[in-house]
């Protein structure tokens, strides 16, 4: 861990400011900076009272809580612990008997453009029926269920059905490999898997069930009893008698009514695996009460949601953004939301803009990497430019997953937002459960590339390595000083790692986010400067360098040693760059290309295609200190194509730098 120093200058020179218009301020829920300041003051005056008020207003409790925050076993904080609720009831049942019951909950657009709509009432029936099917197969409160589904209504149904019976879901992104799935089934002790035969992306039919079969064939999944298979396409897939059931088989004869199971506020709603700085992914465990409060409250605060909004978060349910702002938040808030199965470039790179027009989307929330790739596409082909679509329905834009560079911000603002829509650049993490630092659209003056200010009650700060505050304008380590309701509760099966990773002793008990940040000297606005651990952010997806290294060295017939670093990339934010020492002599030319491809495919098989290194360079060795430590900062410079200016006097083998600097 080291405090970042780069990227600080840019925040000091960014002086464009975009305040919300008077009309937006007037109509907003949190209205103007006065509205924001009032909430902050309330939180400061009575921290617990503030959260208790919001938890009562935003969540429906089947048994009210009497105690707000329990810090007695810090950092294992508990919120609203003696309260009881059901997350699915909070997303569905709460709307029954209100005008929302017949409102479209999900407007699903398939890869091929076919549209299906489902109302809240219909969704409740679908979720209840599937919940009954799970129960009939012996899935009980507290059991873990692994979900490996495409972006479909059924993906959300699967998550909500688990929540309804108090089962803890663990969604795995459909791009992860059989090995990654296998590891997660075992770590979570999953009793069931919910998957689909295939998924449709960009006109291609890609297998899902076959990957589950492969994972289960690896053995050791002793807890697993059932696999439920949604028939997304007409193509048949392998079914194992006794273990595998189609949705149709499982649902046959099941009632469409199912009483939600009340759980304690701290009951684990889900586990979501994410990359950390060691090879093993962390199962981030979230609560039910505090998490749901956050999902609902941030829909209102950050997106200023109104009854007639058409909300679209483009994230996959396999990531935290798809949990909080697809599967839970929009439903808890009673919104109409768009769910999109496909990819932004199929059948052409105007798909997002055409869909906004077609469905009169009002709030659009996506990742900088998507924006950057669509800028490129629009510049290359006028036909897919957002100007070709009517985007006048939009009123708020959002960004998430990685820092948005001011150029992309300005393009988004002008070409998508018509210079009228506030952009909420939401900083948060799998571990934070929902937004923690973000502008509020009717309050915060915007500065391109800055996530601006913490939400009321979030005590975000920038500190040095001893946990002392640094002055505005200086870079440092991003922390959150006090707990908040939607924070990570623990790492599944590994409480020690939870403490060590997020509450290191030297940081005074503060939550360590793992990012570097700097606050602007004038406004105190936060800008995230990137991860300070060995985690890369590629297209908004977190990848651990150690995970990729372990995957490479597990190709034992070929690889002796590997080191993985990130380098800046125009479209994906960061790109993965691997330095590899082979067991045979160093290849060059065509042969190097061929082996590099073989290694890329290997990594795709071990982790998933998203982890494939973009660059692979071969060396006779890696730059190491005399004590044998790989000098990653030198590799980072080489990967960027920079001249080495750092001190190399501690290097065991300085000559290796020239060799690695040559592209194969
Ligand atoms: C929600 C999500 C978390 C990491 C985080 C940071 C980066 C997310 C950001 C951002 C700058 C933003 N990140 N949002 N950096 N500005 N608005 O992405 O969760 O997948 O866990 O990634 O993403 O580095 O630490 P997750």
Automatic annotation (TrEMBL):
Binding-site residues for Mg(2+), renumbered to this chain: 553, 559
Known catalytic reactions: acetate + ATP + CoA = acetyl-CoA + AMP + diphosphate
User: What is the E.C. number?
Assistant: 6.2.1.1
Q: Which residues form the AMP-dependent synthetase/ligase domain?
A: 100-484
Q: Which Gene3D superfamilies match?
A: 3.30.300.30, N-terminal domain of ligase-like (3.40.50.12780)
Keywords in alphabetical order, please.
Acetylation, ATP-binding, Ligase, Magnesium, Metal-binding, Nucleotide-binding
What role does this protein play? Catalyzes the conversion of acetate into acetyl-CoA (AcCoA), an essential intermediate at the junction of anabolic and catabolic pathways. AcsA undergoes a two-step reaction. In the first half reaction, AcsA combines acetate with ATP to form acetyl-adenylate (AcAMP) intermediate. In the second half reaction, it can then transfer the acetyl group from AcAMP to the sulfhydryl group of CoA, forming the product AcCoA.
Which NCBIfam families does this chain map to? Ac_CoA_lig_AcsA, PRK00174.1
Which amino acid positions bind CoA, per UniProt?
A: 201-204, 321, 539
Q: Which residues form a coiled coil?
A: none
Source species, domain of life: Bacteria
Q: List-wise, which residues carry N6-acetyllysine?
A: 629
Q: What name does the UniProt record give this protein?
A: Acetyl-coenzyme A synthetase
Q: Which HAMAP family match?
A: Ac_CoA_synth
**GO terms for MF:** acetate-CoA ligase activity
Q: Where do the annotations place ATP binding?
A: 401-403, 425-430, 515, 531, 542
Q: How is it modified after translation?
A: Acetylated. Deacetylation by the SIR2-homolog deacetylase activates the enzyme.
> In which family does this protein belong, per the annotation?
Belongs to the ATP-dependent AMP-binding enzyme family.
Going by the record, the broad EC class of this enzyme is ligase
């Amino acid at each position: 861990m080291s405090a970042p120093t780069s990227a600080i200058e840019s925040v000091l020179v960014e002086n464009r400011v975009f305040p919300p218009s008077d009309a937006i301020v007037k109509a907003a829920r949190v209205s103007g900076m006065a509205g924001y300041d009032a909430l902050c003051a309330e939180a400061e005056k009575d921290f617990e009272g503030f959260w208790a008020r919001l938890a009562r207003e935003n969540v429906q409790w089947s048994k009210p809580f009497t105690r707000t925050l329990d810090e007695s076993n810090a950092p294992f904080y508990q919120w609203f612990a003696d309260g009881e609720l059901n997350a699915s009831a909070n997303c569905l049942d709460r709307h029954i008997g209100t005008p929302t019951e017949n409102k479209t909950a999900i407007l699903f657009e398939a890869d091929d453009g076919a549209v299906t709509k489902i109302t809240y009432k219909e969704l409740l029936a679908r979720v209840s029926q599937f919940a009954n099917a799970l129960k009939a197969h012996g899935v009980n409160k507290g059991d873990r269920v692994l979900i490996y589904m495409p972006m479909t209504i059924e993906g959300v149904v699967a998550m909500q059905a688990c929540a309804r019976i108090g089962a803890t879901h663990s969604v795995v992104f459909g791009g992860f490999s059989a090995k990654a799935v296998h590891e997660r089934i075992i770590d979570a002790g999953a009793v069931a898997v919910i998957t689909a035969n295939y998924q449709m992306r960009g006109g291609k039919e890609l297998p899902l069930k076959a990957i589950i079969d492969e994972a289960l064939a690896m053995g050791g999944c002793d807890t697993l009893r059932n696999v439920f298979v949604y028939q997304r396409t007409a193509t048949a897939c392998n079914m194992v008698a006794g273990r595998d059931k189609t949705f149709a088989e499982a649902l046959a004869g099941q009632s469409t009514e199912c009483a939600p199971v009340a759980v304690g506020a701290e009951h684990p709603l889900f586990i979501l695996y994410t990359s950390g700085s060691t090879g093993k992914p962390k199962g981030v465990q979230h609560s039910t009460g505090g998490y749901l409060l956050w999902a609902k409250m941030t829909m209102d605060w950050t997106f200023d949601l109104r009854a007639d909004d058409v909300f679209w978060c483009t994230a996959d349910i396999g990531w935290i953004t798809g949990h909080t702002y697809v599967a839970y938040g929009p439903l808890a808030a009673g919104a109409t939301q768009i769910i999109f199965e496909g990819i932004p470039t199929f059948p052409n790179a105007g798909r997002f803009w055409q869909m906004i027009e077609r469905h009169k989307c009002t709030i659009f929330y996506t990742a900088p990497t998507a924006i950057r790739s669509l800028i490129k596409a629009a510049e290359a082909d006028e036909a897919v430019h957002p100007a070709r679509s009517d985007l006048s329905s939009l009123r708020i834009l959002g960004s998430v997953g990685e820092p948005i560079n001011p150029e992309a911000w300005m393009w988004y603002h002008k070409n998508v937002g018509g210079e009228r829509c506030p952009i909420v650049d939401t900083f948060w993490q799998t571990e934070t459960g929902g937004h923690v630092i973000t502008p509020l659209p009717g309050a915060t003056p915007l500065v391109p590339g800055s996530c601006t200010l913490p939400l009321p009650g979030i005590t975000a700060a920038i500190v040095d390595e001893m946990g002392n505050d640094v002055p505005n304008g200086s870079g440092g380590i991003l922390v959150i000083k006090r707990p908040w309701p939607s924070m990570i509760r623990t790492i599944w099966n590994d409480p020690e790692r939870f403490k060590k990773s997020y509450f290191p002793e030297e940081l005074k008990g503060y939550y360590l986010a793992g990012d570097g940040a700097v606050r602007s000297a004038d406004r105190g606005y936060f800008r995230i400067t990137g991860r300070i651990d060995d985690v890369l952010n590629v297209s908004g997806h977190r990848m651990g360098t150690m995970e990729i290294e372990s995957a490479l060295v597990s190709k034992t017939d070929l690889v002796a040693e590997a080191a993985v670093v990130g380098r800046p990339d125009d479209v994906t934010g960061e790109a993965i760059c691997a330095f590899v020492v082979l067991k045979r002599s160093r290849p060059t030319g065509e042969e190097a290309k061929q082996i590099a491809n073989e290694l890329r495919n290997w990594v795709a098989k071990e982790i998933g295609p998203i982890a494939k290194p973009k660059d692979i360079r071969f060396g006779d060795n890696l730059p190491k200190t005399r004590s044998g430590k790989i000098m990653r900062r030198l590799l980072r410079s080489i990967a960027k194509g920079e001249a080495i200016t750092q001190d190399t006097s501690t290097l065991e083998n300085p000559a290796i730098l020239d060799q690695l600097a040559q592209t194969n």
